[in-house]
Predict the structure.
Amino acid sequence: MRKMERKTIFVVLALVIMLVAAITFSFHVWTSVGADADAGGGGGMNGNGVAALVIGGIGSLILGGGLMALVFFSSRRGYDDAADLKSRQDRDK
């Protein structure tokens, strides 16, 4: 296996640092959502909120997967080819 260049190592290290920062921030936000519930503030998510979160997440995954499938099949069948008349005429010759 060939050695990685300095630039590649720097990019990978920067991405890992950003990933750790994002995970840390997300964990902090997730655990602080219901922090004032014990003090009588009524914070936190009830069952309806959790259900909405799960349904929204699954719906987003289905929508994203469906759109990616449409892009894939559109590209395979040639629907993404140039639509102008000149390129069609050149192709038909």
In short: Residues 46-81 form one domain. The chain has a mean pLDDT of 81. The first helix runs from residue 6 to 32. DSSP finds three helices and no strands in the chain.
